[in-house]
């Protein structure tokens, strides 16, 4: 009798299964289905397939999504939750004049905006001076104190001494930097300390604009980057490298990082080398365009040289076969506007289906979370969104989010 009573009580407190009935379904790989449904029980996908073949559990709640496409929650592999757009406050002002508590408060708003716009997983690529606050932000989301995407965090990020910012102070002044400085053997300790603090990934700046002029130049020698990768690897942690110059990209590639960010000077040979070594590429097209706009570029006027070369480099990446991972550098521009990167990927050569794959199945694989999310597949955790229309034909449909579910929990429903 007692077990029966307990199971009855358990049933009363167990949320009913949810059946999602969209018109179309993109599963996160390459296929679009029509007339398929998905059943979610608890935090998992327990059934997916044509409506006629799937048995819906008794007592399930059905969510009808007419005119909508269901897809895996979107992934952005390069964000900065601790940053706000630079036309609201310059990077220098944010890093050196905003109290960290203010930045964290803003980050909670950013996290929610991203989740509600359909992004259920973010790899946050450095707190830019806000220390280890991303670890606490992630913890607050996991404990459901605030609403936000799943986070993979990198904490402070690592730069070579003297190579980062804020800069241009009197040489006698030692100014706190927007990332953690380390060189040579000391890199080993810094990597270990960041991992101990909660870094899911290590981010290293393979190059920065240091030295005379404003051109990005290599910041670490190859052996230093190799030391970062080897130290992180022993802890089961992968490394992402910021690299804009050819030499920075080449060294990061040779050192064995898992993803390269920006890659503005990348050419066909470099991207082919990355493809050969199975390194993912986050183009951050929207960051480049945001910088150009902040520098005065207006819609309808010819793009500046930086944008022309960025687009050519992206074309080379597409031709090379390197895995392109959706990563926008959101924070430089407004949180909640992550679709902008997918729109640019499509505007400059990807098909909508390829771009969607870059933000779902391919991103999950590159970030090593494909056993959890990134596809609509039996057994995976239920991170699902529904948008009005068909983003496989018109990527802008991603802006009309009607339903957001993360880990089986509904955050938005029609
Ligand atoms: Zn960034």
Distance between the termini: 41 Å
The CATH architecture assignment of the largest domain turns out to be Alpha-Beta Barrel
As residue ranges, the low-confidence spans are: none
User: What CATH first level of the largest domain would be assigned?
Assistant: Alpha Beta
Count every helix, treating DSSP H or I runs of 4 or more residues as helices: 13
Average pLDDT: 96
| Number of separate structural domains | 2
How many strand elements?
Answer: 19
- Proportion of β residues? 15-25%
Shape: globular
**Helix share bin:** 25-40%
Each distinct ligand: zinc ion
Describe this structure in words.
This protein has 414 residues and is an alpha/beta fold. The protein has two domains: 2-72 and 375-412, Urease, subunit C, domain 1 (Roll); 74-366, TIM Barrel, CATH 3.20.20.140. It has 13 helices and 19 strands. The strands form five sheets. Strands 1, 2, 3, 4, 5, 17, 18 and 19 form an eight-stranded mixed β-sheet that branches. α9 packs antiparallel against α10 (305-320) and α11 crosses α12. The model has no long low-confidence stretch (mean pLDDT 96). Bound molecules: zinc ion (ZN). The site of zinc ion has 4 residues, from loops.
What order do the helices and strands come in, and which of them pair?
Layout: H1 2-13, E1 18-26, E2 32-34, E3 36-41, E4 44-50, E5 61-72, E6 74-79, H2 91-97, H3 100-116, E7 119-124, H4 133-142, E8 150-153, E9 158-159, E10 180-181, H5 186-197, E11 201-205, E12 207-208, E13 217-218, H6 222-234, E14 238-243, H7 246-255, E15 259-262, H8 268-276, E16 280-282, H9 285-294, H10 305-320, H11 339-347, H12 352-358, H13 361-366, E17 384-388, E18 401-406, E19 409-412
Parallel strand pairs: 1-5, 6-7, 7-8, 9-10, 11-14, 14-15, 15-16
Antiparallel strand pairs: 1-2, 1-3, 3-4, 5-17, 12-13, 17-18, 18-19
Helix pairs in contact: 5-6, 6-7, 8-10, 9-10, 11-12
Bound molecules: zinc ion.
The site of zinc ion has 4 residues, from loops.
